[in-house]
Automatic annotation (TrEMBL):
GO terms for cellular component: cytoplasm. This is TrmE-type G domain-containing protein. One of its GO terms (molecular function) is GTP binding. Residues 292-306 have a biased composition (Low complexity). It comes from the Eukaryota. Pfam families: MnmE_helical (PF12631), TrmE_N (PF10396). GO terms for biological process: tRNA methylation; tRNA wobble uridine modification. PANTHER family: TRNA MODIFICATION GTPASE GTPBP3, TRNA MODIFICATION GTPASE GTPBP3, MITOCHONDRIAL. Residues 83-239 form the MnmE helical domain. Residues 15-80 form the GTP-binding protein TrmE N-terminal domain. It comes from Emiliania huxleyi (Coccolithophore). SUPFAM superfamilies: P-loop containing nucleoside triphosphate hydrolases.
Length: 306
């Protein structure tokens, strides 16, 4: 790969200057990724080489940088990929765990497309039987009410299959976006220490002072090959008078509601508190504040009785 007609100032490659020893591939359409004629430059990946190569190509009037996803959009427009494969390709590019990679590859292999096409084919046949009965039922002996009953039964079966696919507990979304785990419990039970242990770093502040964690601390990690979004929350108790601490408990309740898994942590040396529900702890009213006594003047004396 050689530089263009630049003057060489500012770190640009001079005309005719060697930038890198690269591999050039010519991929004629329509069997390329996009379905169009394509040229690929396989250079070494150092920032200096990539930058100089892009600068040299940018000097050509008929070249420009591709927009994000433009090649995939061309592939879809040219019939090389359907929408399920486009979505799966995005998931594969962003995959960070083996589970995400396997799920994306399965979708790219056409598994989801084949299921959808099978449902569509059965729906079209059921529709054809229904339309035949409506149009020719009175004139044709071979078009009977049994065809309509068969079509209705087929549609009910398709509906059950689609509902079963949708009611999978969100496993596909959990693999793609991560299993949300909320660490809940009373103050100073060890929630932040558990988060730091699983994250293998000091992600949350740990101290013996109750109410140290006021906001949700989130860490993304892998557990058993699955993506996990782990959230440390504010401690839950029903007798807090601190408005900021109570706001933290409200956020804890929101995080608990969004979580796939609630992980409750308690101090084994103390009795388990009665409040075991994040929503009820956050919604419980604060205890009444003690009545304020009138302040005594410097010259007066007062006594208190219990």
């Amino acid at each position: 790969v050689a530089g263009g007609d630049g003057g060489g100032g500012g770190g640009e490659a001079r005309e005719g200057e060697l930038i890198d020893q690269a591999l050039v591939l010519w991929l004629p359409g329509p069997r390329s990724f996009t379905g169009e004629d394509t040229v690929e430059l396989h250079t070494h990946g150092s920032p200096a080489v990539v930058s100089a190569t892009l600068e040299a190509l940018g000097r050509l009037s008929y070249h420009r940088l591709a927009e994000p996803g433009e090649f995939t959009r061309q592939a879809h427009a040219n019939g090389r990929m359907d929408l399920t494969e486009v979505e799966a390709l995005g998931d594969l590019i962003n995959a960070q765990t083996d589970a995400q990679r396997r799920q994306a590859l399965a979708a790219m292999g056409g598994g989801q497309r084949r299921s959808l096409e099978a449902w569509r084919g059965r729906m079209v046949r059921a529709l054809a039987h229904t339309e035949a009965l409506i149009d020719f039922g009175e004139d044709a002996d071979d078009v009977t009410e049994a065809a309509l009953s068969s079509a209705v039964g087929e549609m009910r079966e398709i509906r059950r299959e689609i509902e079963a696919e949708l009611e999978d507990g969100g496993r596909g979304e959990a693999v793609r976006d991560g299993v949300r785990v909320a660490i809940l419990g009373p103050p100073n039970a060890g929630k932040s220490s558990l988060l730091n242990l699983l994250a293998r770093r000091d992600a949350a502040i740990v101290s013996p002072i109750e109410g140290t964690t006021r906001d949700v601390v989130t860490v993304s990690l892998q557990l058993g090959g699955m993506p996990v979004v782990l959230s440390d929350t504010a401690g839950l108790r029903s007798d807090s008078e601190d408005p900021i601490e109570r706001l933290g408990m409200v956020r804890s309740a929101d995080e608990a509601a969004k979580a796939h898994v609630q992980l409750w942590v308690f101090d084994a040396s103390t009795p388990v508190p009665p409040v075991l529900d994040a929503s009820s702890a956050a919604a419980s009213p604060p205890p009444p504040a003690p009545a304020a006594a009138p302040m005594a003047s410097p010259t007066s004396s007062c006594s208190a009785r219990r």
